[in-house]
Amino acid sequence: MNIIIVNNYEEMSRKAAHLFVAQLLNKPDSVLGLATGSTPVGMYKELIRFYNEGMITFKYATAFNLDEYVGIEKEHPQSYWQFMQDNLFVEVDLPFDRQFIPSGTAENLEDEAHNYDRRIAKAGGIDLQVLGIGRNGHIGFNEPDLKFEARTHVVKLDEQTIQDNSRFFSNISEVPTLALSMGVKTIMQSRNIILLASGKEKGDAIQKMLSGNITPELPASVLQLHPSVTAIIDLEAASRLDIEALRDQYKIVTPK
Ligand code: PGA
User: Fold this and answer.
1) What is the number of the ligand 1 atom nearest to the C-alpha of 139?
2) pLDDT of 185-230, one tens digit each?
3) pTM of the entire structure?
4) What is the 3-state secondary structure (H, E, C) of the chain?
């Protein structure tokens, strides 16, 4: 894993966008793995800027999102389908029929999960996956558990996740309690992964992710086993790291 520590959210967003731009320039028909939440919003803004400047096109790309709430319509303001429309898709030229997000209102969620993995496999797997990290160490909606779930699956959301995501809803009781999420195997099969973290509330999860212990109780820790992860972490999210000690294990770039 390469670790790039940056000063703040803006720098994190810019660096992450640069990796996406490089990916699209090298391979215009890339399969992109996308994430929702507050963390990647700045990166999407940067990508829209690069798109508007004519530097990149999404015309040949395909996108798969990590997860979606179960039980809310895709047009619901807080659905991840709607989030992607608002934060990226309406602004760029990614064809509508190559914007994949699991459907949280599918009649048969097991079939939906299975079909989602089949679609990813048929597209050739994910070239570049972006991940945020939950305060509890989740990636996608792979919540702390006793085992890693391999494939796309239905998840019961953690109390902490429901609490954290309640900021987007008018009332905590409106936050869905179930979601569909790509599994750990699907994520780990991505050729390249960028993990983004900003803010001191992520400090504990980041420290545990890099601690050397690999456990489904801190799902992001599995990324230590992936051959091509770049973690872009701002100073606040990195505040609990013993950077000098970690240099034995990781290539770390720190801000000037
Ligand atoms: P956030 O969520 O970007 O809104 O902090 C990250 C996550 O839960 O993966």
Assistant:
1) 9
2) 999 999 999 999 999 999 999 999 999 899 999 999 999 999 999 9
3) 0.97
4) CEEEEECCHHHHHHHHHHHHHHHHHHCCCCEEEECCCCCCHHHHHHHHHHHHCCCCCCCCCEEEECEEECCCCCCCCCCHHHHHHHHCHHHCCCCHHHEECCCCCCCCHHHHHHHHHHHHHHCCCCCEEEECCCCCCCECCECCCCCCCCCCEEEECCHHHHHHHHHHCCCHHHCCCEEEECCHHHHHCCCEEEEEECCHHHHHHHHHHCCCCCCCCCHHHHHHHCCCEEEEEECCCCCCCCHHHHCCCCEEECCC
37 lines ligand 1 (CB under 6 A): yes
Q: How far is the CA of 105 from the centre of ligand 1 (A)?
A: 22
Q: Is residue 113 in contact with ligand 1, taking CB distance under 6 Å?
A: no
pLDDT of residue 162: 97
Query: pLDDT for 79-126, tens place per residue?
Result: 999 999 999 999 999 999 999 999 999 999 999 999 999 999 999 999
> Is 226 an annotated catalytic residue?
no
Q: Does the beta carbon of 26 sit less than 6 angstroms from any atom of ligand 1?
A: no
Q: How confident is the model at residue 256 (pLDDT cuts 50, 70, 90)?
A: confident
pLDDT tens digits for 174-185? 999 999 999 999
CATH, domain range 2-253: 3.40.50.1360
Contacts of 78 (CB under 8 A, 6+ apart): 69, 72, 168, 169
Atom of ligand 1 nearest to the CA of 199: 5
**What distance separates the 2 farthest-apart alpha carbons in the chain?**
53
